[in-house]
Design brief:
CATH class of the largest domain: Mainly Alpha
Number of domains: 2
Strand order of the largest sheet: 6-7-8-3-9-10
Number of strands: 10
Order of helices and strands: HHHHHHHHHEEEHEEHEHHHHEHEEEHHH
Shape: elongated
Mean pLDDT: 77
Largest sheet: 6 strands, mixed
CATH topology of the largest domain: ABC transporter transmembrane region fold
Length: about 650
């Protein structure tokens, strides 16, 4: 027996339908979660809940009969011929006994119903958990393209409402819809046996009119509910987006503007909510009117029967109790339909996410990547995010094992695209990428990413402790290994002077740390991972000049005997690279060592000279006391320098055609 929520058996055999009206398809797809093939204990709970359900409904049907018998006994209409000396005993004992039986049946009905709910709770909540797990897992399997387009606030809201919607559907179908159908059938049978077909006809007409009105009104309300959900999602998205950008809001004194944007979305939510509540009032009033007409008709028929001598006072009480008894499940049927329809509306986006296939998948039987040396090779790689705009145009280069190759270029040249393709966040449009002669599209994604260590330019941390964020690099690392990685990344001293040390909370997205501190945490977790291949996206860009030297030394030590690819924005960090590749508009325009490129006096030399001039001017201003900027301010990104120099003619080396 297993409690693992991601067993293969959890997945439905068919795709999940996103059609708003496909309730049956939705229930079919939910069934594997309600009746899991790998959980015998949950199946027994389902069976037990069904038996308790049936017993509770039989007790429910017995309640009006005990009420009738008690009433007839009190009215002297029991129809039992007894001697005069025994009649008084009967007149006292039977009503009391039937009244006790009436109370006993109601207690039994309530106890059995609550036992059913308790037994089935484990089934319903486990189904919710498994589906929520599957959706969360699937979101991580979707492509980077999907996550770049998504809105985090809206997506978490969809997950939350979808999870609640699943719980409603599971509980309503098993605990409300099935019992209601059984109870209506039993009541119709009892009325046909105890009275005659006219009563059944009135009840059937009442039920049909009731359900027709419920259907029409609910369909009307669904669109209102959808508008309300969209407004709620929009308001939540704006709130999270604004709070995540708290500092930017403060920089531009935009608090009032952000509040107005949020209030505009909430105003739409308010209007939709008012319509939703108003429509609910109309629905409830219409249902009450229809049922009251049916109740009145059956009671008038019973009064005529009493006057004609064919019915007793007990029958009058019984028909009233039976109709009231019918109203509860009938009202539940209306509520069940409304809730299920609304739940399907709530989870339709969640189901569409589940139905969306991952863009990048492992080939069947794909082997793990085996890294012996770590040589990276791009062979005539072509890639486009959009077919209308090609980013990389036949890119070919090699990063030999244990060597360092840097890539520079203007914004849009394709530098970041290279790192994303190497991590296989996207598949190449044409050509191939090899590691030790193995096409990365033919190996498992997990093994590929385990072999590469990434230090991004913009580090985002989990809202947890420093120790947690460093250990993320290798989850089974010991505390000593975590602290050694922090020491190599030059952050151990800062951590130890903090009041909570390694248990210091970093805040959402690491906002409690400075940019340099966040970067060093990212470097520490990559050091802890210890991969054979390093990918550095300007790992020291957020550091001051003094710390940059320390971190660069640490990175140099980490990079020893490792293949290293550097995406560079500041040229001072890559002067020691074995080869520097200059990209422009998706092609290589220059390549060589730092000295070779300077002697060539081309684009790279122009970039270098402009950066040096900017640094020297800043130093002179600082010495003169006129520099209002921070003394250790970083030089401008190389993209700015490249953009200025790119328009000048250049003579590319012989291999620039690559």
């Amino acid at each position: 027996m297993t409690d693992n929520p991601h067993q293969a058996a959890d997945k439905p055999s068919a795709g999940i339908s996103t059609d708003r009206g496909a309730l049956v398809a939705t229930l079919v797809n939910l069934w594997p979660y309600i009746w899991p093939s790998d959980r015998r204990d949950l199946k027994l709970r389902v069976v037990g809940a069904m038996l308790l359900l049936l017993a509770a409904k039989l007790a429910t049907i017995a309640v009006p009969f005990t009420f009738k018998w008690a009433t007839d006994a009190l009215a002297g209409q029991g129809g039992v011929p007894l001697p005069p000396n025994l009649w008084m005993v009967y007149a006292l004992a039977v009503p009391v006994t039937m009244t006790i039986a009436y109370g006993g049946m109601r207690v039994l009905m309530a106890v059995l119903t609550q036992m059913r709910d308790g037994v089935f709770a484990k089934v319903s909540m486990h189904a919710v958990r498994r589906l929520a797990y599957r959706t969360f897992e699937h979101m991580h399997q979707l492509s980077l393209r999907f996550h770049l387009e998504r809105k985090t606030g809206g997506l978490t809201r969809v997950l939350e409402r979808g999870r609640n919607g699943i719980e409603i559907i599971v509980r309503m179908v098993i605990l409300q819809l099935a019992p209601t159908i059984i109870e209506v059938a039993l009541i119709v049978g009892v009325l046909l046996w105890q009275f005659d077909w006219r009563y059944v006809a009135v009840i059937l007409v009442t039920v049909v009119l009731y359900m027709w009105f419920t259907y029409v009104a609910t369909e009307w309300r669904i669109n209102i509910r959808r508008t309300m959900n969209e407004s709620d999602t929009d308001a939540n998205t704006k709130a999270i987006d604004s709070l995540l950008n708290y500092e930017t809001v403060k920089y531009f004194s935009a608090e009032e503007r952000e509040a107005a944007r949020y209030d505009k979305s909430m105003a739409r939510y308010e209007a939709a909510s008012v319509k939703a509540y108003t429509s609910l009032a109309v629905l409830n009033a219409g249902q009450a009117v229809i049922f009251t007409f049916g109740l009145g008709a059956t009671m008038v028929m019973c009064v005529n029967g009493i006057l004609a001598g064919t019915n007793t006072i007990g029958d009058f009480v019984m028909i009233n109790a039976m109709m009231i008894q019918l109203y509860q499940p009938l009202n539940f049927m209306g509520m069940v339909y409304r809730e299920i329809k609304q739940a399907v509306t709530d989870i339709e986006i969640m189901f569409s996410i589940l139905a969306r296939p991952p863009e990048i998948v492992d080939r069947p039987g794909a082997p793990p990547l085996k890294v012996s040396e770590g040589t990276i090779r791009f062979e005539n790689v072509v890639f486009a995010y959009d077919p209308e705009r090609c980013i990389l145009k036949g890119l070919s280069f090699e990063v030999p094992a244990g060597r360092t190759v840097a890539v520079v270029g203007p914004s849009g040249a394709g530098k970041s695209t290279i790192s994303r393709l190497l991590y296989r966040f996207y598949d190449v449009t044409a050509g191939r990428i090899l590691i030790d002669g193995q096409d990365i599209s033919a190996v498992t994604q997990k093994s590929l990413r385990l072999a590469i260590g990434m230090v991004p330019q913009d580090t985002v941390l989990f809202n947890d402790t420093i120790r947690y964020n460093i250990r993320y690099g290798r989850w089974d690392a010991s505390d000593a290994e975590v602290e050694e990685a922090a020491r190599l990344a030059q952050i151990d001293g800062f951590i130890r002077i903090s009041p909570k040390g390694y248990e210091t909370e970093v805040g959402e997205r690491g906002l409690k740390l400075s940019g340099g501190e966040k970067q060093r945490v990212a470097i520490a977790r990559t050091i802890l991972k210890g991969p054979p291949i390093l990918l550095l996206d300007e790992a020291t860009s957020a550091l001051d000049s003094h710390t940059e030297k320390d971190i660069q030394d640490a990175l140099d030590r980490v990079a020893e005997n490792r293949t290293t690819l550097v995406i560079a924005h500041r040229l001072s960090t890559i002067v020691g690279a074995d080869e520097i590749i200059v990209l422009d508009q998706g092609i290589i325009v220059e390549r060589g060592s730092h000295q070779q490129l300077l002697s060539h006096n081309g684009l790279y030399a122009s970039m270098w000279n402009r950066q040096r001039e900017a640094e020297e001017a800043r130093e002179k201003l600082a010495l003169a006391g006129e520099d209002t900027a921070a003394p250790n301010r970083n030089p401008p990104p190389v993209e700015d320098e490249i953009s200025k120099a790119a328009s000048r003619p250049l003579v590319a080396p012989a291999d620039a055609a690559e």
